[in-house]
Amino acid sequence: MADGDELGELVEFLNRTRGFDFAAYKRPTFERRLAKRMDTVGVDSPAAYVDYLEVHPAEFDLLFDTLLINVTGFFRDRAAWDELARRVVPDLLAQKADGDPVRVWCAACSTGEEAYSAAIMLHQILGDPGYRARVKVYGTDLDEGALSYARQATYTAKQVEGVPPDILEEYFEAADGMHTVRSDVRRTAIFGRNDLIQDAPISRVDLLVCRNALIYFTADTQNRILDRLHFALRDEGILFVGKSELLIRHSERFDPVSIKQRIFRKRSQMANVERYAFVAAGGAAEGTGQAELPRSIRDTALDVGPVGQIAVDAEGNVLLINRQARTLFGLHRRDVGRPLQDLEVSYRPADLRSPIEQAWNERRPVQLRRIEFHPVGGDLRVLDIEVVPVIDGGDLLGASVTFADVTAQRRVQTQFDHTRRELEGLQEELQSTVEELETTNEELQSTNEELETTNEELQSTNEELETTNEELHSVNAELEATNDEARTRGEEVDRVNAFLETILTSMGVAVVVVDGELRVQVWNDQAEELWGLRADEAEGVHLLSLDITLPTERLVGPVRTSLANGDEPLPAFELDTTNRRGRPIRCTVRCLPLPATDLDQRSGAVILLEATPL
After folding, report:
1. Tens digit of pLDDT for each residue in 202-233?
2. What are phi and psi of 8, to 5 degrees?
3. Which domain holds residue 215?
4. 175 and 26 both lie in a single domain
5. Domain containing 572 — which CATH number?
6. Which residue of 188, 474, 537, 550 has the lowest C-beta tally within 10 Å?
């Protein structure tokens, strides 16, 4: 559309002067809606549009009405409302004690249809006494004009098309083609301005309806808004969003109740409980009846175990190194009996002394996760290390250190994480595309409603034009008759003009007629012959501006005197001059007043110039 600096200046200007922050709106949608207004008012850049707004303050309301797309309806997406009324809201009410208040917030409510839909639904479920005693419905929006419309609660027949006939009859009062929500339901709905991005949310809400509002915002802004909506809801409160809002990325805050109908429940915050197992060493407990395994089998089983294991006594001396540990760290049987701190494994791949001390002091297992280890001449390994204190009857005997090779799991986890990130990216792109499509659909719906309104206006205009056309036919017939009369009079005028022209030509003197401002009105052929100035060059020109040899300045005084004296002619006088061929002549000048007539209210004078050679 235009460069980003100008667009940013426009956004900042709207925020500074009107308190609307459109920086959080998706840029393509904002640019598309802005371009519509700019095209309407005839400007080609955001900078020019800022200038236009400063000169035309009324344009702000038209701009906000275009940017804040008010597309809504009663029981929009009827299947979702049916699911809400049939199962979700009754379950929600069953969790509340009798008499507890029920709070509903309809965010971005536009002209209030969905706020009243929620109110009607709860009235049907609770009945009249329970509804009046318990329910409060809050509707909020940025558009003050839409909120004012919502408070009136009066809608056209087209706006209530989505209302089932039984509900329309019970909950609406019809008058003059309009439908008004019943007063007892209307009084429970409170409407006010609230900016989902900046203003504090309404709190302790049981049912929050926010449908197709998030699709206009960027992903970061959506997260901020959802944080506020999550805060507004009570535990187990219900969030009802639009059909293009999946909340895929917000499963940690909301559990789906019906993904198909876009109904979600606030997830309760519960503490995670970790349990630690304490491992005791030695034989079977007394009285179990289990015989102790032969030592050779037990030792062999420990030696061939699938994970590396090292056991140390309370003084830190090595008691056991199984085969996996010897192979993994290059140890030998002769290392048994040596202090652990003398072996490389005590600090490589990780420092074992501190975890062992911690396990002994806290009497619980200590784990080291995802430790990378590079064996000499081998490939990178990833190990999970667990240090378990060995306790017998409350006495500390030592510690068991196990090394689990999780390289394969780490590789799979890495691939899984990478795939998950790609999938999340694709899901976000899909969600963004779906939201953009829904935004476009709502814009098209808004445009379609505007076109329908325009079409009705055009139809009304067409009917007026047909009436006017019939009137014009009648007037045209009258004009034709008048035209015939005018044509007849025009022919008469032409004959009179021709006759007058003949008279002026046959007089044998130059005739000049001027008006009250001394502009030439008539210039006959004899005047043209004397001074070589054609009639079309002289007529309309001031007498003093004529480019001729006649000293016209000497005519001004007599002409003005003649104009002042009215009907009384002035005596003739003579002027010596030259004609167009440069020959000297003497002009006898007579000035006759030309009084105003009924047809021409302008007065003037007739100048007769009779030339004789010298």
Report:
1. 999 999 999 988 888 888 888 889 989 999 99
2. -60, -40
3. 78-266
4. no
5. 3.30.450.20
6. 474
